[in-house]
Amino acid sequence: MEFLFKIIAVGVFSCVIFDIWQRIFKLLTGIPPSNWAMVGRWLLNLIKSHQIFVKNITTVRSYDSELKIGWLFHYFIAILYAFVYFLLMNLGIVNPGVVDGLIFGVISVIIPWFFFLPALGNGILAKKTPEPIKICSLALMMHSIFGTAIGIGFQILMGQ
User: Fold this and answer.
1) Which helix or strand (DSSP H or E) is residue 10 part of?
2) Which are the contacts of 118, defined by CB distance < 8 A and separation ≥ 6?
3) pLDDT of 79-100, one tens digit each?
4) CA 149, CA 100: separation in Å to the nearest integer?
5) 36 and 63 in contact (C-beta within 8 Å)?
6) Which of 39, 76, 129, 154 lies most in the core, judged by the most C-beta atoms within 10 Å?
7) CA-to-CA distance for 94 and 105, rounded, in angstroms?
């Protein structure tokens, strides 16, 4: 059960770092943080309609609890990423620390680029948005920071 605590702690820690950085980044650039209400709307719509890919998430009917659900799902996914990193550590593929965490984060951006952006109706690599390069760059930045935080989190908890 100790491993479960470590996974949850690292997932939450990394997600908090992600969220704090988005707010700092907004202060520096004016670019708003992720809209977790849209994530909640997507998830609630998926549960209700069994539709993974929507044409445009902004045209899907809204739900009263979508923001809360979006935030919860955001942290749940962060814990899943920490679980994957933990498995990779146990297989000897990655080690706790900055470098492997960064590499993991860079690789993990494949999920939003090729699954989640299309699922929201934004296309592969955000090609259906007005600024695909900007959106993909922001996703790469955030996943790099997030992955690095996972690596550091496990490094701290493993005492290395």
Assistant:
1) helix 2-29
2) 53, 124
3) 999 999 999 999 999 999 999 9
4) 10
5) no
6) 154
7) 12
